[in-house]
Design a protein that fits this description.
Layout: H1 6-20, H2 42-51, H3 58-66, H4 73-84, H5 90-108, E1 112-115, E2 126-129
Antiparallel strand pairs: 1-2
């Protein structure tokens, strides 16, 4: 393991000792995040390896797989779903707001949208006035 960072080697060695104690019968997914073993924050380190799995080098992944720490398929699927979600630009959000305002005006007959300000009493509420059309 000479090409791996010292911190990573130390943490891996600790994780391997944890794994060897019950003869390799460790359910890493059930390891509490606050687990500390031999002075290492093992729970946090294991979570970090899962979170960064796609960016790990093959050597890292091979060593982790050898002690039962494998890629978390649910986490990978969740990340892919977030990445696949289309990004909405400010312009698009503004357009959506204008469409919502037009619907409100059609339904209510005015553009005085009530706005509650958190922490204010009911008699202090103000109404935001939106001008449709402009100069």
């Amino acid at each position: 393991m000479p090409h791996l960072a010292i911190t990573w080697q130390r943490t891996y060695t600790t994780a391997r000792r944890w794994w060897l104690e019950p003869e390799g019968r460790v359910d890493w997914a059930q390891l509490p995040l606050d687990t500390v073993f031999e002075g290492e924050q093992l729970g946090r380190r294991v979570q970090a390896q899962w979170a960064g799995w796609p960016g790990l080098e093959a050597d890292h992944r091979d060593l982790l797989t050898a002690i039962g720490i494998e890629e978390d398929q649910e986490l990978v699927a969740a990340k892919q779903a977030v990445e696949a979600k289309p990004k909405v630009s400010r312009t698009d959000r503004f357009q959506q707001g204008l469409v919502a305002l037009a619907r409100f005006v059609d339904r209510e007959g005015h553009a005085r949208v009530p706005r509650r300000v958190p922490g204010r009493r009911a008699h202090d509420d103000r109404q935001a006035v939106v001008v449709v059309g402009g100069p």
